[in-house]
Amino acid sequence: MALAAPAPAAAPPAHRSRTAAVVAPADAGDLYLPALARHGWTSVAVTTPAAHPPADGYLRHLTHRGGLRRTAAHLANLGVQAVIAGSPAGTELADRLADHLHLPGNAPESAGIRRDTGLTGAALLDAGITAPRSIRTTRLTDALNWAAFIQVSGLLLQHPDPAHQHPGYFCRTTEDITYAWHRLQHSTSQPLVLREHLTGTQYRIHTLTGPGHDGSTDHTISSIWSEVRTPGQQVCRADLLSRNGLLARALALYTMRALTALGVRYGPAHATVTFIPDRGPALLSVRTDPYTDFASDVLRRATGHDPIRDTALLLTTGRRYENPPQRQAHVTKVALLPQRDGALDPALLRTITTLPTVAVTTELHPGTPVLPGQIAGWLLLVADDSRAINQDHHVIRAAENLGLYGSPA
C-alpha cells in the first residue's frame, strides 16, 4: 500500500480541508472514508474503467485510464495531500501516484515485486534474507524440470498474487504438479509460482511503517498471529502471540528487515512468515492493501491496535498510537469449515455461539447453506486461561462432527 502525508516540497492548492486519494477502494478500503473524516479529511476515489463505482461519501470520483501524469495532475488540482491504496488492485498505482506527487509512500520501483510472491522471494534471497526457493514460470515443463532438480519432499503451486483467493496446491509428485497446474493456469500467459513447501508454523504479522525520529524508516509490529492450516492451506485457527517472547522477537526482527528490503516505507502491511527451527523465519508473502477484521472492537481492546484507525492517524497527523502493554488475555480466531454441502443446524449453532469464551462471531444464521471447503464463519474466543479456549475449541470441532452443517454422514 502507498500512503502519503503532507510534504513541504509539494504544497497543494489551498483548500478548506485536507484531502486523501483512495485508489481502487473496496471492502476494507472504504473504511478509510469515515476514519479520515474523523480527522477532518475528505476523500477522493480513484478507480479504473473496469472497476465497480465507489461507495457513497467520496468528494470526487476519478477514473484512471492509464495516464499516470494526467491522473496525478487531477489529484494535485483537487489539493490531494495523501495517496492510499483501497484494495490489492490499487497498491501499485497508489505507490506510483504518491511518488509522482512527491508524497511519501512505498518504493514505486518495487511495487510489482511486492504483488508477486515469486519476485518477492527472489528479491529477498538476492538481499541475503531467508526465503523459500521457487520458480516463477508460464511453462509447466519448466516447473517440472525445476521440481526434479530441487528434489524436496513437498512443493506448493500457487498464483503469484498474494491476494489471490486460492491458497495453492500442495504437491509431492509430477502428477500432483501437473494436475494443480491445469487447475490454476487459465491462460498460457499466466505465470504460476512453484516453491518449496516449508513445514514450520505460519504466522500472520501486522505492521505499520512511517518515518522514525531520525528520518529513517521505522516499522512497528502491531500483532502476530500463529496460524493452524488445513491440508488445503486454509487457515482454520489463529492464536494471538505474545510480543514478549523470544520467538516473537525473532519474527519481528526478521519481518522488519524483509519489509525494508522490499521497499515498504509507509503505512500498513501484513506478512505471512513461517518459522523453521533449523533455518529461522522465512517470508512467504507480503501485502500492503488495507486490512480489517470481523471483530475489530474486541481485537482493539486485546491488542491496542486497529489497522484502519492507526493508519488514518499516521496519515493525517504523522503520529502513531503508543504500543501499549499487551493484555494477558488469550485470543483465538476459529473458522467454521464444512466438509460437505449442508446448512447450519440451529441447536448446535446456538451451542457453539454461547460458549463461555466466545466474545463475538461473524454473522451466523440458522439454516444458512454452507459449501464444502468454504469458510462458513468465524468465532473469536477470549479468555484469561488458554485451557478454557482449547476446551471450547474442542467443543466447536465436536459440534462440526455431530452435525453443525446438517446430519452427520
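(ticket continues) Second input and output from the same batch:
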Amino acid sequence: MKKKILAGLLTVSACFTLGSTSFAASAPTTTPDSTPVSNVATSQEITAKGTYTEVNIEMQSGTWRYIPGNLQLVSNDGAIELYEDGWVRAVKYGWACVFSYDQYGNILAYGIFVDRP
C-alpha cells in the first residue's frame, strides 16, 4: 500500500513538473464524443485558461481503457501503449502520465498505474 501511495505522489509530481513546460500549451483542442474513464482519485486546480485535474487510474496488464480528449504522452516507463484514437493498453508493471486537453483549455492529467495480473 505504501508503494502505491509513493508511486501516486511521484506521478502527481511528474505531471505537475512536466505539465508546466512550454510544449503543453501547443496541443490541439478538439474533443471526441466518448465515455469517460472511471477514476480512482482526483484533485483539481484552476488555471488561467481552465482547470487542471489529476486522475489516477489503476489497470491490470493486458487491459484496455479509453481516454477522451486530445492526448499527450508526458511520461511512460513502458507500462502502457497510447493510441491516437484515445485507447490505452496496459502492457507491463509500471506507470505513465498522459495529459488530455479539451477546447475550453481544461487539462486532465492521468496518472496510470499498471499492476501485475
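Agent notes: The beta strands are 41-46, 51-60, 64-66, 70-76, 80-82, 87-90, 94-101, 107-115. Residues 72 and 113 are 17 Å apart (CA to CA). Closing as not reproducible unless the customer responds.
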